[in-house]
Write a structure and sequence with these properties.
The radius of gyration is 23 Å and the shape is globular. Strand 16 and strand 17 form a beta hairpin. The protein has three domains: about 1-35 and about 190-275 and about 500-530, 3-Layer(aba) Sandwich (D-Maltodextrin-Binding Protein, domain 2), CATH 3.40.190; about 60-175, Dipeptide-binding Protein, Domain 1 (Dipeptide-binding Protein, domain 1, Alpha-Beta Complex); about 280-495, Dipeptide-binding Protein, domain 3. It is about 30% helix and about 20% strand. It starts with a helix and ends in a 26-residue tail after the last strand. The strands form six sheets. A six-stranded mixed sheet has the order 14-21-13-20-18-19. It has a four-stranded mixed sheet with strand order 1-10-9-8. It has a four-stranded antiparallel sheet with strand order 4-5-7-6, with helices on one face. With about 525 residues, it is of the alpha+beta class. Helix 1 crosses helix 6 (about 235-245) and helix 14 (about 455-470) packs antiparallel against helix 15 (about 470-490).
Length: about 525
Amino acid sequence: MPRLRSLCRGLALGAGAVLALAGPALAQKSVTIVREVDSNNYDPHKSTARAASEALFMLADTLVSLDYDMATIRPGLATSWAVSDDKKTYTFKLRDDVTFCDGKKMTADDVVYSFKRWLDPATRSPVRWRAGPVDDIVAVDPTTVEYRLKAPFSEMLYQLTQSFAVVVDKSDVEKLGPDFGVKGLNGTGPFCWVDWKPRNEMRMKKNAAYRWGPPIYDNKGPAQVDEIVWKIAPEDNTRLAAIMTGQSQITQYVPYSGMAPIRANRTVKLVESKEAFWTYFIGFKIDKEGVNDPEVRKAMVMAVDQAAIAKNLFFGEVNPAYSYISQDALDWNRKVDAELIRTNVAEANRILDAAGWARGADGFRTKDGRKLSPLLYSFTGSTWQKLSEAVQGDLRKIGVDMRVQLFDATAAWGKMATQEFDAFGMSYPYISAGDALNLYFRSANIPTPNRMNFKEAKVDRLLDAGMTATTDADRAAAYGEVLEDVHRQALWIPLYHEPMKIAVSAKLAPIKAHNNYGCGLYKGLDIRYVQ
């Protein structure tokens, strides 16, 4: 009973916060989606934030789309495509009925411009590698694009389903300049940009002309609601109260303390999917003093109790992670299972003793006059606040004094592109080993997203071999070796694997969770009121 009363008080306080956040009651055709953090911007080529992708999938479109199984490629802006025998040329046939939100017709020239902007070194895209080893991209005619590669790219079509590959309007980019993706974005999606107030809300309105939705949807367009409002609510109780009291109609950021009340509440439905791969971890910047020693990193990984984190912080709703990707993901190497580092505080202390890190009177370790006190950067919000405190407590058991600095998402991405920290807290989506490994462990991706400053020629060669493989077996073999290498070096502290759970108001029709880049609502074409 005391716990129940505490929860009710929390909901009451949270409801007040949401009411202040929401302002006047919204029209029936408006849907409010509450989430924990915002993006740093909404430029598809410059942000890797899930928050950016959540909006971009609704604001713009890709040549090809991904089915709910996270494996089958479907048409998008392209009705069909052909691949050359040498796997180096992809020819896409485009729809001829697509327009941008301002009414301008989309053609092959817009596709070419979008991809070349993505690839342009001046854009400084942190996800440029996802476009593959491009030789050239050309518009053959207004409805035909040739995408020419220097070498085969085994995940080519999958990468073109991502929000980084959406088609943008050249004139809009040039007009807005540095404010592109900040003050506007003229896309071809089912919704159009209205405005963005950083750390507060983003508004988008229905694109009445939209008729070209992916084939996975019964409704190809237009959208079935007039407006989507994305609200930021960092506090767990605020998000829970928002969905429980009807201030929000959807949230993918359900606090785990609220799962049981939501399941018991007839006014809210919980949509779950096991097909999502999303992992939380702490990475080490391995050229920084202290954490540059693999033995120190191994001891720190061994000190963290992932099972306790999953149970105590997340109510058993997540899976403890000892691997850098889910062991159910494509091309996971089963040989790595036996090498995964498990919680063992006694062994972690023994390793640090042997490495010469001695405990002082304060319980913390020093060596050669330097304290073992790595600095962690991550995000504000309840999730990383709780995670960093839990890891900090576990590390103190072995004499490591981890310092923590958390930043709002609008600043955090920039801070984590610097060299100021020793470790960073991050979470990320992926569909396969190759998707994850090429993202984080390729040396060309230093300083971001390879924030570890990890550079190994052998790994780069294996990643290239996996990317250019023309058989499943060759791809899996290459990525399997990388998985062995990076786990052996203890580059990360894996924390947990998160399944997809979306709370949806019973006033809305049932939706099916989509897992592309962890963006459960994808295009939002199935969002509609039934009450």
